[in-house]
Amino acid sequence: MRLRTRLVLWQGPTQVRVGTDPRWSVVLTDLSPSAARALAALPRDADERAVRAVLAAEQVAADEADAVLDHLRAARLLVPAAPSAPASPDAAAWALLEADGDASEVLARRRAACVQVTGLGRLGAGLALTLAAAGVGHLDLADTSPVTRHEVGWAGVAARDVGRPRRDAVARALHDAAPAVRTPRAPAGPPDLVVLVEHHVADPTRHRPLVTDGTPHLSVVVREASVLVGPLVRPGRTPCLRCLDALRADVDPAWPTVAAQLAVRPPEPEETLLAAVGASLAAAQALAFLDGRRAATEGATLEVALPDAVPRLARFDVHPACGCGGLPGAQTRGGAPPKRGAAGVVRA
Q: Rounded to two decimals, what is the model's pTM?
């Protein structure tokens, strides 16, 4: 067994703090001064044997050493020893969240997954790069419009890429950053998730076929001075974009007329802060889905607006006039059964 966290901090003559994240951090109190010194000096990736060794070196009594280890087990801070050290920062961080301290299953799911990203401006390119760096194995890049000068220097896009199809420029940047990622022109099968990065408004002609086919999809809309991330739609299981439009129309009867005009307007260059924050939030939602966790934007949106760019969550339900709730949700592709986290909480 080994310690889940690498952080053991001296907190006083008779106290140490194990971990700093409130989800698993504990404070061991009433220690002998020698035990507190020993534990604060534990090496990184210490296992149970190392804990006993440093305590013995400080001549800590065997019954106190047993009590320390019992407390660590009770707090789920001792987990099975991994066969090797985490291969990446992502593996080390995600291992903290798994009940058994092993992120290999999460990373394997990502390697096997295929995500299609449509819309490869600043935000879409940043999203694709983040997914590749996080270990997603297949990225289907769907945007043949030319790179503009506004995208140079963003997510690895270079000056020499101006005028080239965005798909080709972003694929080259992804392979530079994550050589193992695959960007096939013709994926072998349907993607596990489609991310649609659009401007002004979500185009229903793009989203409705995905609902009909049962393809999970995430909407990202870049607006005048804000970006809307979500909803992430699991057809037949969560509210869809038609639900959201119907709810808007209930509040503003002119919304369908306005939306129809916005859908045909050309995209505008994307502002830096909105593109950066929007790409990160969209990547987090996509990874939650691929990892088998419930994404925050299932039945919800995250709005990021200038000037503060702080995400604001708004939830909504299936609209009674929309037929998406009657679709066979059991046929939806992607996702995974709920799983238990490090604290024993069910993640759905």
A: 0.88
